[in-house]
Amino acid sequence: MHYHDKQIREQSVELLRPVFVHILCNPTMDLFESCKQDTWQLIIKSNNTTDLQIEILLWLCTNRADTCIDANYRVLELADVALLRRDKELCTSLVPFIASLTVQLLEYGHEPMQNFCTILNLFECCHNYIGNITLLLMAEIILICPAAYLRDALQICTVIVDTMPCHVILFNTLAASLLKWLAYPSLLCSDALVVAKELLIKIMSQKETDSGNGTISNKMLLIFSYSNRYIQFYMELIRSIYSLKDGTLSWMDNLSLVSIDLRYMCKLVLCGIFLHSNDPPVVQKACYILVQIAREINSFSSHMLSLILYKLTKTRDSSTLKYLLLSVPEFTMTKENLPIVIHTLDTLLNSGKPLKYFAIQLYLKALEKEPRCYRFISTALMDTMEKDRSWQSDVACARAIKHICEYRPEHGEELVPLLSQILNRCVDLNSGAASALALDSISALCKSTVIGIYSTWQVLAPKMRKEKRTVVLESLCDLFANIPSYLFRTSEDYDKFIDDVVTHLWGYTVCDDARVAKAAFKALKFYQVEHITLRALPPSFLSGIKIQLTPGKSNDENSQLMYSLQYIPGTCWIQMLKNINRSILSAGGDLLIFYIEEELNGFRSRIYTWPQGEPQNFKYLPERSVIRAIGEYLRRSDKIDQNNYAIAVECLRVFAHKYKKPLPNIKWDFLKETMQISEAAKEYSLSIVSRHCQISNSAKLLTESFLSMYTSISEAGRLLLEEKHIVFYSNLEELCQAIQPANLKQFLETSIHYAIDQILLNNQSNFKSSLNDKSVNLFNHIMSSYVTALKNNEIQIGNRTLLTTILEEISEKVDLTSKYFEKYFMAVMELLIKDVDRMTSPNTWWVVTPEKLKTAVAIRIQSAFKGNINAPFAWLNELVNTTESNPEMRRYLLQSIQKVHTDLRAEKSCDLEMQKDWILDFIRHIDALMIETPDNNNNIIFYCDILFVLVICLSGMECFLPEKELLFTSQDVRIRLFPQAISTLIDRQIWKSIARQIMKWLNYMRNSSLPDVYKLAFQSALILLRHEEDYNAEWKNYLSVKTLIEI
């Protein structure tokens, strides 16, 4: 570099670059420190070495303690030279660089004093626009800084707060870090805490944000950010914060869906939003995300607890106060937090009555998180019940006891005296809720065998037989419902006990209180019909039983003959429907549905086969059959008598239920007359025949007869308005198995076009949202039916083709990218791949219209990433070629990819192994394109854009954008986020297996003929991955390529 030949001297940096890079960027640390220091001093003190300096700094590794310390020395030495030269741009860029290295040094347990001193010195020769990024990094430092160095760290923060403009949220981010120290003060840093309090006062007085936009124009710092994950990540966050304005809540909604690693990196900014905002939804959402983080990363919980307690002292909004208090018990998971949480709850318990009852609820939440909290809630319950005899106290305590009995039954035995106390003293109407909760607690203890139900009922029975309160009787019915699942000791009279319980329940079904009767019917569904005797039924249910009277015997003797029957005759169930309160008729019907389900389970397949023709009635079933009773009632009842209508409709509803097996065969012609009773009767009748048309010829003929009405325009219009088609769609799967395509076609086409026309009409006319919602719900119902039918491999091939054709025709006529037609894509996903390929292939169309192309894009992207397509690249290839000269359509393609992956993340249905395959598939095909069509840069660039969007979405990085649209509209945003996104993915353990492939490909791409902005993105991504283990094996190959530097 000091050679006498001028020409050689001018080229010396270029000639010696490999030597310098090998000495200073060697991650193996084989060379002596003195050699490195001398080499570095030579470079930084020579002229025209700026690019080389930057290149070396970019590739310095910091993933181990020794490499981090080495890199830190190099940067500090450069800072000294920059200060001597008063190079303001360089000094400015080095402040965040040194601060980020300090974070890593502290994580490795190295002392930070030299870095602190250098930062303070650099402040004298730097621009003030680095306040935001430096403040964020200092907040990170303060969290992990040893007490001995805290005062020095706070001096840096004081300079920033006093002299540099910053966003008010970032000031509060620093405050969040300070509060951790102030909440847990240490004698080792008493002087520092004085400074911290002064800083906190200054910060809390800051109400306005600086007028800038958070952007940094320092090119050197931007280049350094390429190699530093902290700087790059925080610069992106700062951009978002300045752009949020009124969109903070939606931004946090998106952020709450990303993986824990990204949420944790955002913790300090979220803390800043939490402390600064006074908007209840924003505060509560920030708290929710931060509590999520604390649950998964326990080391953060003590910090978050201190913030919540501080926020409680500053908040005046009642809903926020309640939310924050409900969050406090979440932090009992760590030993150091437990005393603080319990002290807070004890304070509430000793307050006025409303807070006292709320405190008991909080103790329960604490018990959910930490079993050791039982002794605290036990003491609180006993003290409260002893000192406060109000019904509110009893309800609060009973609710807590119920929760403990359900989720911590091991403590249940200790709580039995308290339950007894509640049942004995809660006798008035107001305390009915407490008694009901006590019964629920007893049920839970019986379920976990802490107490026995038989002996418990012996104690409860005298009191419960007199009970009249509705809410208590409802809980008693719930207790009875659980009895069949309890364990019984062999010495107990099980049959007698069950008979007693069932008799009670049947008695409640005819009581005047509809709520109790409904609860009783619900409980009876847990008892097999075999467990019911005729004596258990109310007398009014027995009036339809026909027995052969014995001449000369008294009525009592004839009654005994009736009661001697070993089964319940089916006619009793019709009498039940006739004699119960009409307002709970559906509850009785639900019980019959349960009995029929049990009856059908006992049938063999031969019961559905009738070679001689369908039977005219159900009399071939036994007299005890519920199906026989309902079927015969429907067949023989008086259709003119309006008193029978309600019972008949309920019987139809019972038969129309979708059982796992079909009902036994019968000639269903009697339904022609029955369906004339009412519109509801018609719907249920149509549901029955459409459900059974596969096994019943009469049902099939009735169904086809009704479907044929859709061939008449006037008749179809009436039917569509009456919405009878909804019934058929509920059973479309069965229809597609039994009905020929020719008989289904008109119905399917007419009804789907009607649904679509209604949506379009309501949308154009700006009708009320309720009307539009109704038409959209109808379309969604139809599409859901298509999904169910297409999933069934037993439907007729012709009907599968018909459904496919209809879906294809819809795609040609309607703009399916509208939000109203989203369910359409669910149906298309169930089509055969060859059919989807045909209907979305522009090569098969006569005319390529924007609408059709948009639909094809949406379908193919849904299929590629949500379906079972193994190679998404090949699936999208044709569309990419078709949209080559259409920038708007290409943006839509990127938008569709983003939307699909946003949906997958929200549904939490991501297959991580498949995600890796997607990335590798794109990489392989981009490589192939680079070889096959090296001159077609437009397509290669667009595939790179698709890859960028895919990687950014998979990592979750797009959630930091203030506007989602930026990802598919802005090339700059994609290029900026890609390096951080790929680094985030490779940091996750499941992606480590493909790290070497990714790194080699990135190295190949940064040498390609693509535009420099893309090569810089690939280069930056590779630099961020230099901390991976695979880098050590290949570092010479990567550094043999000169780094692209643009200043």
TrEMBL record:
Q: One Pfam family this chain carries? A: Focadhesin
Which positions fall inside the DUF3730 domain? 306-524
- Matching InterPro entries, A to Z? ARM-type_fold (IPR016024), FOCAD/RST1_DUF3730 (IPR022542), Focadhesin/RST1 (IPR045163), Focadhesin_C (IPR021392)
Gene Ontology annotations of biological process type? regulation of post-transcriptional gene silencing
Q: Where is the Focadhesin C-terminal domain?
A: 615-950
Recorded protein name is: Focadhesin
User: Whose protein is this, by species?
Assistant: Cardiocondyla obscurior
